[in-house]
Amino acid sequence: MIVAPKIRGFICTTAHPEGCAQHVAQQIAVVKNRGLIENGPKKVLVIGSSTGYGLSSRIAAAFGSNAATLGIFFERPGEGDRTATAGWYNSAAFEKEAAAAGLYAKSINGDAFSDEVKKETIAAIKADLGKVDLVIYSLASPRRTDPKTGEVYKSVLKPVGESYTNKNLNTTTGVVNEITIEPAEGDDVDQTIAVMGGQDWDLWMDELIAADVLSEGVQTVAYSYIGPEVTWPIYKNGTIGRAKEDLERVQKALDTKLAPLKGKAWVSVNKALVTQASSAIPVVPLYISLLYKAMKAAGSHEDTIEQMDRLLRDRLYNGNPQPDEAGRIRVDDWEMTPEIQAIVGKRWDEVNTENLAELGDFEGYQSSFLRLFGFGLEGVDYSKDTDTSIGVPSLK
């Protein structure tokens, strides 16, 4: 079938298999061009491995360090005239590229929050890898079912304490308008922490420790974001920020649990980028558009693959992680330079619908969004029929 993007709000309901494969290939090329990561990881578990930072983490480990990778995700294959999800096609392409390079790559498709997937993962590690030396936790989901109680938690993106009004970018129309977001109420904060906080990361690590499938010196990393003050009411100080505080609580607890293995847990604060998760957060798309313009002009712009390669190459495996005062790794450091933030802050005050193209990079934002779903990639003929029933090799 011929596949075109069908966008509904901040989601694209179609994905292009050849475009997703091209996107994966481009990320692999970035990593290979930088050479091997000295003393890098060799057996890696990536929980949430099919899109965004998780996918780029898997690519950086495999093609930067020749690592065997086990990826966990929850994606949908193509069926009839319905395309698969982008993450399905990404994973299929990754496994094909890994096999061509002689690298072990296996995937498990299921609810990573469940006990069943944790057990299946441990069985695969024992059967194929023995032990893993890096565990990457990169799940992004709007809801989570508690594996012990069966309760379903739902996250919300809201400020805490009072309503928040600021500029916003309608990513469908390109209109800069004003948005007011009402504050969290009831158990919104607790629900969001249950979904996006550190509890599931903690459960994963407990299971992996108990099963004795972690190597001595193992490292584990989960991802976070802080951003500038203009986004704090909806992010750092909002419900999602409370969840990220819980992530940092768990990081400290995991340090203690991993001490007998001489292991280390990290929270990595990453740059603001267009991902399926970030696209859903009010205010953030306008900030990203302004940020892209400033960082591209300065020559410091990175996408997820450059970020994850730098995390592994320059922080986790070079003996110099450079933690901040709270013990977090900061690969948002180029974003948060005073020079970049001064430019973005000034333009934030000035931006409107009419001058958005001049002050921001909305075109770059849109392009990045479409690339997440395999559209707009050079070298792909989108007018041709494509096979949407592609399978993930290890799941056949």
Summarize the structure.
The protein has 396 residues and is α/β, with parallel strands linked by helices. It has helices spanning 17-33, 52-65, 86-100, 115-129, 188-196, 199-210, 239-258, 284-298, 304-316, 338-350, 356-359, 362-371; strands at residues 7-8, 11-12, 43-47, 68-73, 105-109, 132-137, 143-145, 152-154, 164-170, 175-181, 214-224, 264-269, 329-330.
Structure write-up:
- With 396 residues, this protein is an alpha/beta fold.
- The protein has one domain: NAD(P)-binding Rossmann-like Domain (Rossmann fold, 3-Layer(aba) Sandwich).
- It has helices spanning 17-33, 52-65, 86-100, 115-129, 188-196, 199-210, 239-258, 284-298, 304-316, 338-350, 356-359, 362-371; strands at residues 7-8, 11-12, 43-47, 68-73, 105-109, 132-137, 143-145, 152-154, 164-170, 175-181, 214-224, 264-269, 329-330.
- The strands form four sheets. Strands 5-4-3-6-11-12-13 form a seven-stranded parallel beta sheet, sandwiched between helices.
- Helix 2 (52-65) packs parallel to helix 3 (86-100) and helix 8 packs across helix 10 (338-350).
- The model has no long low-confidence stretch (mean pLDDT 96).
